[in-house]
């Protein structure tokens, strides 16, 4: 493996590690539902930017790592991130052409699907609520998407990740 290719993989893994850290930072109890889905946004970006290098397999591994890190039901994050990666992979050419505000709307839908999968699995285990508050992370993720996109694109261009 060439030095340039392995360096690119390290940048992608580094951004995922930052996403893992941000997803575990403690928040006050009243803000817990307002936490954006950092790892999901990073997966969406890398699948959209580098579909030939970051695909469904990497999303699955990232999801398993997030399951272990959060102590959640093993496979819950893996299933949701794989689903998001698959949809993003299908739409990646179209998503690249959208302006940032339209990409943010797609992130709202994709992270909403992520949250719906979580809610569905939690309802199967009997530990879910009756309100739609579980969709708030999708709204916050969509609001933050333009900044996440610009930061990750800057990292990709700075380190020449292709």
Automatic annotation (TrEMBL):
Pfam families: MreD. Belongs to the MreD family. Signal peptide: none annotated. It comes from the Bacteria. Keywords: Cell inner membrane, Cell membrane, Cell shape, Membrane, Transmembrane, Transmembrane helix. The chain crosses the membrane at residues 6-27, 39-61, 73-92, 104-121, 133-152. This is Rod shape-determining protein MreD. It comes from Neptunomonas antarctica. GO terms for cellular component: plasma membrane. It is a multi-pass membrane protein. It is found in: Cell inner membrane; Cell membrane. Its main location: membrane. Involved in formation of the rod shape of the cell. May also contribute to regulation of formation of penicillin-binding proteins. One of its GO terms (biological process) is regulation of cell shape. Coiled coil: none annotated.
């Amino acid at each position: 493996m060439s030095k340039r290719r392995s360096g690119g993989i390290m940048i992608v893994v580094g951004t995922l590690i930052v996403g893992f850290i941000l997803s575990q930072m403690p928040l006050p109890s009243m803000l817990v539902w307002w936490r954006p889905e950092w790892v999901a946004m990073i997966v969406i970006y890398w699948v959209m930017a580098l579909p030939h290098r970051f695909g469904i397999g990497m999303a699955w591994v990232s999801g398993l790592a997030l399951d272990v890190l959060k102590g959640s039901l093993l496979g819950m994050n893996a299933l949701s991130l794989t689903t998001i990666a698959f949809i993003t992979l299908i739409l990646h050419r179209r998503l690249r052409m959208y302006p940032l505000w339209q990409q943010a709307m797609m992130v709202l839908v994709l992270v909403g699907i992520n949250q719906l999968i979580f809610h569905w699995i939690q309802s199967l285990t009997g530990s879910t609520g009756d309100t739609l508050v579980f969709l708030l992370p999708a709204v916050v993720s969509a609001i933050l998407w333009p900044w996440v996109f610009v930061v990750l694109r800057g990292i990709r261009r700075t380190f020449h990740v292709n």
